[in-house]
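Interim report to the steering committee. The following record documents the input for RING-type E3 ubiquitin transferase (517 residues).
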Amino acid sequence: SRLEPFSRRGPAEEARPGAAVTVLCPDCDSEVDLPRAGPAGLTTDHLALDEVFLETLVTDGPLGCDLCGEPGAEGRCEECCVNLCEFCCQAHRRQRRTASHSVQGLEELKAGGRLCRPVLCSVHPGQELRLFCQPCDLPVCPECAATLHRDHRCCPAHDVIDRHGDRIRELVSAHLRPRLERLEENLRKVDISQDALQARVDSAASEVRAFARGYACAVEAHCLTLLRRLEDIRAQRRTQLHLQRAQLQQALLDVRGAVEFAERLLSCGSDAEILSAKGVTLRRLASLAEGGRDPRPAPAPEEAAALSFLPAEPAGEVQGYPVVGVIRCQAVDVSRCSVEGEGLQSATVGQRGHFTLVCRDSAGQQVARGGEHVLVSVVHKEKRSCTVEATVSDRGDGSYSVTFTPEEAGPHSVWVCVRAQHVKGSPFSLTVQRKFRRHGGTFHCCSFCSSGGDREARCGCPGTMPGGFKGCGHAHQGHPGKPHWSCCGSTVESSECLPLSVLAAVSPRAHLRTVEL
C-alpha cells in the first residue's frame, strides 16, 4: 500500500539529517518508521509483485524480451526477474553465471496462476534466501551467513518454517479468524440495518406524502364546508330580515292608516259621523295600541351581522383527519335553544328545582355570550292563582341557570321564553310530587318493650295498657298485634308517616283499626 509521511516531531527535528520519519499507511492506518535507507529499506512484498506480474501477463498480451527487445517473450528468469525470448533463454542457460537460474515458460506461469520463483538477496544478487538468522530474525543467503552473520546462528529456512508458520497459523485460526467472522457478521448486520433503515425511511416518506395529500384534501373539503356554512347563514339571515321587513311594513301601514283615519275623522267629521264611527274606530285603535299584532322586534345591525371565524378552534375530523377552524354565529336562534336538567322532569314540594337554558345559534352551537332577555314562568295547571317564582342567573357564556321552589303538589306548566318567544318544547309539563313524610318515632313491638317499662311512653297506635301506662303493650286492648311505628301506628316499616289529621281522629279508647299503607 502507498505510505504517506506522518511525523510527530517538530520542524527543527525533522530538518536534522538522519532524523527518523514515520509514515502512515492509508489502507490500514498503521504507523511505520522508515529505515535510514529510506523507502527502499522497507520489506518487499513478493506476493504483491507476483500478482502484479501475473495480472500484466494476462491483460497486456504478448510481452517483449527484456534483454534483446524482440517481441514474443516465451520465458522468464525467476532469479533475474526478466522476460526472455527463445534465443535469450538458450543463451541464459549456456552462460556459466546464469546456468543455474530457473527459467519458466510464460504459458506455464499463466496457466498456473502463481509464480514459483526463489526470493533473492538484495545484498548479493543471484543468491537465494535459504537460511534464517535467528538473532537478527531475518532470512539470509549463504554469502550473508558467511560474512555479515558469521557469528550468528543461522539455520536452513525449512527447519524453522514450521515453528514460525505455526505461530502465524495459531494467531490466524485462534484469534483473527473468529474475529474476522464476527466482523463479517456485524458488517452484514450493519448492511441489513442500513437496508431496513432505507426501506423504513422510504415507507415513512410515502406515508408522509400520502398523509400530506389526504390532509390537503381534508383541508380543502373543510374549506368548502365552511364556505357553504357561510352561504347558508347569509341565506337564512337574509330570509329572516326580509320576513321581518314585510311584517314591519304591514304593521306600519296598519298603524299609519288607523292614525290617518282617526285624525281625519276628528278634524273633518261632524258630531254625528264621529259618534257613529266611534265603536269601530276605538276597537281598531285599542287593538293597535296594545301592540298585539306587532311583529318581532328588528335586531340591531351588529347583531344581524354577528358571526366570526375561529381558526384555532377544533372542528372535529374530516375524512379521518383532525381539522381546525369553525364559524361562530353569535345571533341566538330561539328554535335551536335547548333546556337541560332534571328540574323539568320531576320536582318535590318545598325542594328547590333546577334546570339550565342553553342559547344556541342557527348551527346548533352554543352562543359564547350572555345578555339575552329570558323569561321563565311556573304556573299550577289547576290553580291559576298559584304561581312559583323562578330565578334566572346569566352565566355569561350563553347558558342560564333557572331555580324555583314549588309550594303546591300537582301538575304545573313551565314557560321558557327567549326574546318573548317560546323555546322548543315550551311550555313544559311538570308534575310536582308531595313531600315524603318520614317517620319520627320508633318501629317497635310495643311502648312497654321499647321504653324499658316507662309509664309515660306513648305510641301512635290505639292500644292501651292497664296500670297507668300511657302507651301500648303486648296482647292488650287496641294493640295491632305486630310491630308498628310509635309516631303514627303504621305497621309497614318502609312507609310514609300518617298525617296529623289521621292521628287526631284516633282515640286511645276507640276501636279504629290501623291502616296499612
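The first helix runs from residue 11 to 15. The committee is asked to note this result when reviewing the revised timeline.
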